[in-house]
Amino acid sequence: MSVGDSTAAQYDQKEPHPTQALDDTVHQRVRLGVLTVAREAHRVEFGFLKEQLAVTDGNLSRHLKVLEESGMITVEKGYVGRRPRTWVTLTREGAQALDAELRALRALVRRLEAPRSVSRTPDT
After folding, report:
1. How many other C-beta atoms are found inside a 10 Å radius of the C-beta of residue 27?
2. Residue 30 and residue 28: Cα distance in Å, rounded?
3. Alpha carbon distance 34, 47 (integer Å)
4. Among 83, 72, 74, which residue's Cα sits nearest to residue 47?
5. 58 near 21, Cβ under 8 Å?
6. Does residue 72 contact residue 93 with C-beta atoms inside 8 Å?
7. Is 71 left (phi over 0), alpha (psi -120 to 50) or beta?
8. Are the C-beta atoms of residues 46 and 86 closer than 8 Å to each other?
9. C-alpha to C-alpha distance for 52 and 10, rounded to whole angstroms
10. By the 8 A CB rule, do 89 and 38 touch?
11. What pTM does this model have?
12. End-to-end Cα separation, the chain, in angstroms
């Protein structure tokens, strides 16, 4: 489909492209992973996140800081016995941001999977 196709013009007039609804803070792979794993559990431990997302301590720490500063997670530090632990919990704002991201991704998939009746003309 070329930019001049009526189908492309139809989408432009009806609604913004679904990618415009993607949140740069949420959409990054590791941060999206943190939010989804945190949604699956009431509280998730740093080591589990690190293992599940296949990242280094420093990399995960940086992403947790971004999410915490955005109000999407809370980070709690404590001990289990004498061992220090860090737990992550999804906030209401984080859950809402994740829901919005998933809606945008679903809209994008629906748009790409929708049958199209595009009249094709040979390129000149």
Report:
1. 13
2. 6
3. 12
4. 83
5. no
6. yes
7. left
8. yes
9. 41
10. yes
11. 0.80
12. 14
pLDDT in tens, 31-61: 999 999 999 998 999 999 999 999 999 999 9
Length of the chain counted residue by residue:
124
Two tokens, residue 74: 């809370």
Residues 55-113 pLDDT 10s: 999 999 999 999 999 999 999 999 999 999 999 999 999 999 999 999 999 999 999 99
Token duo for residue 112 = 């790409």
Which two three-digit tokens encode residue 90? 């999804």
| Amino acid at site 108 | L
Give DSSP secondary structure letters for the chain: --TTSHHHHHHHHHS--GGGG--HHHHSHHHHHHHHHHHHSSSEEHHHHHHHHT--HHHHHHHHHHHHHTTSEEEEEEEETTEEEEEEEE-HHHHHHHHHHHHHHHHHHHHHHS---PPP----
Scanning the structure block, which residue is given the tokens 């013009």?
9
pLDDT higher than 60, residue 28: yes
